[in-house]
Amino acid sequence: MNKKMWEQKNDEIQERYELSMERVRAMKSETSVAAPFYDYFRKTAEFIEKIGRVAKQAGEDAFAHADLDRLKRLNQELYCDVAGNAYAESYACPETAAERLGEGYGQLLSFLYTEIRGMIVWAYEQRYTDLTVVTELFIEIYNAFEEGTPELSSLKEMVYWYVSDYCDIWIPYRVREQLDPGMSFARDIICGADLDDVRYLYRFGEYITENELEMSRFLAGLPQKEIDSMAFTFTEGYRMGFVNAGIDLSKKKTVNIRYSLGFERIVRAAVAQFAERGLESIIYREARHSVNRRPQGNAGYQSTAFSKQYLFDHREDSALYLDSRLVERRLSLLKAAYEECKELAAVHAGPAVMEIFGEQPFLPKNSKAALKLSRKQQELNVRYNSGSGQIVNTYIPGDERSFTIIAYPIPEIGEKFPEIFAETVKLNTLDYHLYQKLQQKLIDALDQGESVSIRGKNGNRTDLTVCLGTLSNPEKETLFENCVADVNIPVGEVFTSPRLTGTNGILHVSEVYLNELKYLDLELRFENGRVTDYSCKNFDSEEENRSYIKSNILFNHETLPLGEFAIGTNTTAYMMAKKYRIGAKLPILIAEKMGPHFAVGDTCYSWSEETSTYNSDGKRITAKDNECSILRKEDVSKAYFNCHTDITIPYDELGYIRVNRRDSSSCSIIENGRFVLPGTEELNRPFDE
């Protein structure tokens, strides 16, 4: 559905929209709903009415001329009830809702409230169908309370059919906005606004904080030459990812840029540079409808989270409605949507991602009132993720796409933000030829091994043996990829897909952040390369800790394989983290380069195992499969897990990494956190400096 078609849909829905808003306005003078529910419906109705006014003003382009103070006030009004500490007192908080409205009712109405909050961005985008159907659900549930307290089962049925009935709108729209450059709401702002005037930030409809405002002003103060250079690092890395993978980029026409608000100046330069390479940029926001959101993270542009606890509490809201019938319906609609967009999908090159770091580390509170997937629903969620992954790969084959990721700090990192930003820019442009040479020394030694032993120190309990693949022709083949600054910026790792059989032991990290969640004393136990046990010390009870890991690392699988073993070599990044004391704030993109890391889930080569890739020495990388991924040749549903989480042991917790050769001799790579392999001593220089 292109932009004009969507505008036509808006015209068709206007009558329903006006009727629904008229009904909501009437609620303010009604007293037919009794306590304790009256307050919930009154406040929510007021919010919906406010959104109606915002949608009207956005449609008239009123915000383009509003002064900055007015825009700030409106933004604060739209998010004030869920931002920061206010969230704990709002109906969006499941615990508060359950306490005030009763068990079961509170959780359902909290879900409804969060679904309604998506109306903010739909108002700015003029998506009247979305505004209408959510308002109609609110009215339907309100009406049910007018005759007294309805049965909870009847309310759940309303939610279920709301989700089921409107999947055929939301899923095709989500697919279309991911593939169609004609859906250009964000790109139009980025490329058309005056980026010297921070008022443009408020046109997105997202929550705007000092992070976004200061970031925009900071970049406005840099010479255009520096902006273009940063964009070039990003776009050139993307191009090199295709070159190194042997994929013909000239056949592609679109690229998806994902970023955080405030970085528009770099993004605008990247849009222009991609256009010079024949790629039109697609920029879509994170999903807002529950049915399109995923517990393991959501792609799209975003702003600083108004409350990470809010996101954590609602990550499994689909527990309210998920069943096997709905899974099959969603998969059917997803396939139909991709079929309708197959020509757009065929020319889509993949994502170019600009991550941020510097936010205060988040240690979630485990809310007992938050909706949780049942064991059966966890299995259904895994089935949906597997099926959706297969559908996407059918229309955008993994061996025909690539990606790149880069990261920058945001002002929240502290008063030394300008210095850290400058250091990060340098980090992103380190001499990859030097690292390529040093990392080749590591690979030459690793290729001689049948396994690698990793031991921790300073309280780190890691005691792990990782088995390696075999080389039939060592003169022309290699097990490890020499990773420089292309798809993963900055430089600094060698990695492989380990052999699962014989990979045994314990992986332990005292403190680590994974997917923006903190883990204390995280421990995973592996037997034949698969997770068999796990624990952490985030919560008081073992049950809560195990549930936390299963939901957010295993993503509800009963087990996951060790998909990647890598050795990070970017000691410069490690020392930057030490110098500014920001190790806990670094994204995994940088943190994984600061020691050995181990990924649970899919291999780095998932969906593209058959594509031949080579290191700079001309050797073909052969370790692309493991005992799980090879099952794609029999049953693709058993081969992939649709997740990949890197866990890094920092150098100061690392006792040693030793290669165990096939002749029973061994070779040390790292001892006591320092590189000791002859020819790699240069990697220790940042430690000494």
Structure description:
The chain is α+β, with helices and mostly antiparallel strands. Among the domains are: 3-179, no CATH class; 430-688, no CATH class. The chain has 22 helices and 19 strands. The strands form four sheets. It has an eight-stranded antiparallel beta sheet. A five-stranded antiparallel beta sheet has the order 8-9-13-14-16, covered by helices on one side. α12 links the parallel β1 and β2 (280-282). The longest helix has 28 residues, at 152-179. The radius of gyration is 26 Å and the shape is globular. The chain starts with a helix and ends with a helix.
Reading side by side through the largest sheet, how are the strands ordered?
12-11-10-6-5-17-18-19
State mean pLDDT (0 to 100 scale). Answer: 94
Shape: globular
Straight-line distance between termini: 57 Å
Structural class: alpha+beta
Kindly estimate the percentage of residues that lie in beta strands according to DSSP. 15-25%
> Main beta sheet, described?
8 strands, antiparallel
What is the helical fraction, as a range of percent? Answer: 40-55%
Compute the CA-based radius of gyration. Answer: 26 Å
Number of strands: 19
Query: What's the total helix number?
Result: 22
Q: TL;DR of this structure?
A:
This protein is an alpha+beta fold.
Short descriptors:
17% strand; 8-stranded antiparallel β-sheet; 5-stranded antiparallel β-sheet; alpha+beta; 689 residues; 19 strands
